[in-house]
Design a protein that fits this description.
The chain is an all-beta fold and about 290 residues long. It is built from no helices and 28 strands.
């Protein structure tokens, strides 16, 4: 979810939006991890895809209801509008929907744009809404782990990492100059200054450096079987970044492939990545090879 939620995995199926395009048709589909048995579920431009039982919850953009929350059965039936709340970064956990509340900003009245204005949560049946963090500009994303909610505030490499209870209580600053985070086995894996991959204990008292990259920034953190996967480098209009992995203790770093990858997702033995091209992100995947002994 911290990588945008363009893909989710459950019970041997991949649910994803394979074409996150600025223009043109979109689809919400399901397939096997190797790409076989692909089936269209809807024509939604879906992001923040969450699995909840037999339902997918996600954010979809439509002209009449921008960034509304929908749900649909995993077989493509019973597509339902859950809330017209203008939202992004949706996490669905324990009966609540957590999301960025988007605020409309000034601009062309025919093409308004939105920025995060705070963090809210809403009951899955929309019966109750709570503001957890209000009027905070420059929220990059938040990461929900158990009863804790981690979030980044700021711009560029000057972001600060905070933690609070999932009810909005006890807001605490943990680190500054943080650009990416992931929570693995109770440890916070994070990127500092765009180039240092580090990990720290949940309360911040222990901090261990793992890797410093000459190709910056490091982003797209994900985890599988004792390895942290990430993208290192920038690509812009031309060029490629490196998709890499490193063991949880910082050893055994391996470069996997070069690509214009904007995020990383893992489905069994497949590494999925949105391939960027002039603003469009098309999903590709490759088999993850076992490390050499």
């Amino acid at each position: 979810m911290a990588n945008g939620g363009q893909l989710a995995v459950k019970d041997g199926w991949v649910y994803m939006n394979p074409y996150l395009w600025s223009e043109g048709a979109h689809q919400l589909v399901k397939s096997k991890p190797d790409g076989s048995s692909r089936t269209k579920l809807s024509d939604d431009k879906a992001t923040s895809i969450n699995m909840v039982g037999d339902w997918l919850y996600y954010v979809a953009s439509e002209p009449s209801k921008p960034n509304a929350i929908y749900k649909i059965k995993t077989d493509g039936t019973e597509r339902t509008l859950v809330s017209q709340t203008n939202a992004s970064g949706l996490w669905v956990r324990d009966g609540w929907m957590y999301y960025h509340r988007l605020a409309e900003r000034s601009g062309n009245e025919n093409a308004p744009y939105y920025t995060p204005g705070g963090i809210e949560r809403m009951r899955m049946d929309s019966s109750e809404k709570q503001t957890l963090l209000s009027s905070m500009d420059h929220i990059k994303y938040f990461f929900l782990q158990g009863e804790r909610l981690y979030y980044l505030i700021g711009e560029g490499e000057k972001k600060k990492l905070y933690v609070m209870g999932n009810n909005g209580s006890g807001q605490t600053e943990l680190r500054d100059n943080v650009t990416e985070i992931s929570i693995i086995d109770g440890w916070i894996y994070y990127v500092r200054d765009g180039k240092q991959l580090r990990k720290m204990s949940g309360d911040g008292s222990i901090d261990i450096p793992l890797h410093e990259s000459a190709r910056t920034p490091i982003f797209g953190l994900n985890y599988r079987d004792g390895w942290v996967y990430y993208v290192s480098g920038s690509f812009g209009v031309s060029g490629y970044a490196s998709m890499e992995r490193i063991r949880l203790d910082g050893t055994g770093r391996q470069a996997l492939a070069e690509a214009r990858a904007t995020a990383l997702y893992i489905a069994e033995d497949q590494l999925y990545f949105p391939y960027w091209s002039i603003g469009d992100r098309t999903m590709y995947h490759m088999k993850i090879k076992d490390p050499q002994p």
